[in-house]
Amino acid sequence: MQVYLDNASTTKMSKTAIDAMLPYFGEVYGNPSSLHSMGQRAKEVLEAARESVARCLGAAPGEIYFTSGGSEADNQAILSASVIGARKGKKHIITTAFEHHAVLHTLSKLEKQGFEVTYLSVGKEGNVTAEQVAEAIREDTCLVTTMTANNEIGSVLPIAEIGAVCRERKVLFHTDAVQAVGHLPMNVAVMNVDMLSLSAHKFHGPKGVGVLYAKKGTLLTNLIEGGAQEKGKRAGTENVAGAVGLAAALKEATDNLTENVKKVSALRDKLVKGLSVIPHSVLNGDKVNRLPGNVHFCFEGIEGESLLLLLDEFGVEASSGSACTSGSLDPSHVLLAIGHPHEIAHGSLRLTLSEYTTEEEVDYALKAIPQVVERLRNMSPIWRDKVNGLKPFLI
Ligand SMILES: Cc1ncc(COP(=O)(O)O)c(C=O)c1O
């Protein structure tokens, strides 16, 4: 049996999204900037996709900019705010310690250019409060950027409250909503955001296409110079099929949101309950405010990479953390941020579900994971020392 439990890395495309895209590879292949009929047809569908995305987010079509994905949207949002800030002599930015690297690496680039960044601590449960943001805002703060939901441990942040603080203090607010869009209700007005990033492949759309929402009046600077596409803010011939696929997947996810959340969170809870009985394990992330599809555990005495490889042999495809940190032997910055020592952070397992996940698959994973954990522990000299009382247990 093959059980795909890595939907936070990427999702299977929905049939609706694939079918919506197909005509724009073959039949309607025009460049939206061309004046002839083929070009104009492509332009019409691109604008229809923009309108559909705007409707799903409670935004206006003019506030939707198509990008190559979540990373580009994050980069553009943060760099735009830094340019506006620098013009006013404001060079302080607030973020959290457990953002995605698309945000963290952009911020460290800005630190090298003289910006000061406050990294809010996320506590043991992995979350931040609006009060923390309020306390950190200074006269020279030009941007607050906090993710809507964490990609590793699934915590859902109080975005509307953080946004309300930023509005009141007149500070720009960006949220990386890449893990939340398609999985949680989204409305940019309710969330009080000025900018929001999303990525199609996280909600059964195509890879390589995303959106930066920028509230009317928010000044954007270009990452890519060239033609006048995307209202002059993102040069390059538009990915028409990608935009259409993104819009179709987002509409499908939005239309079925209530039903999907109910189904997926029930499977998530079954997994959490079943894995919690493994001795010396801990569920990471906010227990209540949590993405419907996220299960994230640390198992003491286990090395995450071995766990993943052995699980793969059983047909269970999972992750130890974000797609970007797996492959590196450094422990995840997210797990260090919630206070785990390196030894525990190394033994992590992220299982992420989607509406395509079945109960049978969850039951299969619940049989396989405890067996694999036990097998790896039995092979480990460190685990033996712990069992024999020569080394202390940490969880
Ligand atoms: C929270 C978060 N932000 C940004 C990204 C980057 O998105 P993309 O792969 O579309 O560049 C990801 C992808 O894993 C993510 O989880």
Total tally of structural domains? 2
List SSEs in N-to-C order: EHHHEHEHEHEHEEEHHEEHEHHEHH
- What about the largest sheet? 7 strands, mixed
Helix coverage percent of residues? Answer: 40-55%
Alpha-beta classification: alpha/beta
* Main sheet strand line-up: 2-8-7-6-5-3-4
CA(first)-CA(last) distance? 32 Å
Low-pLDDT segments, ≥5 res:
none
| Beta strands, count | 12
Name the ligand types: pyridoxal-5'-phosphate
The residue-averaged pLDDT reads 96
The global form is globular
CATH topology of the largest domain: Aspartate Aminotransferase, domain 2
Radius of gyration: 22 Å
Specify the CATH homologous superfamily of the largest domain.
Type I PLP-dependent aspartate aminotransferase-like (Major domain)
Just name the CATH architecture of the largest domain: 3-Layer(aba) Sandwich
State the main characteristics.
single chain; 395 residues; alpha/beta; Aspartate Aminotransferase, domain 1; Aspartate Aminotransferase, domain 2; 2 domains; seven-stranded mixed β-sheet; three-stranded antiparallel β-sheet; 12 strands; 13% strand; globular; binds pyridoxal-5'-phosphate
In short:
The protein is α/β, with parallel strands linked by helices. The chain has helices spanning 15-21, 23-26, 37-57, 70-87, 101-112, 130-136, 159-168, 240-255, 257-276, 304-313, 333-337, 342-345, 359-379, 381-387, and strands spanning 3-4, 64-67, 92-96, 116-120, 141-145, 172-176, 195-199, 210-214, 281-283, 294-299, 316-317, 348-352. The strands form 3 sheets. Strands 2-8-7-6-5-3-4 form a 7-stranded mixed sheet, sandwiched between helices.
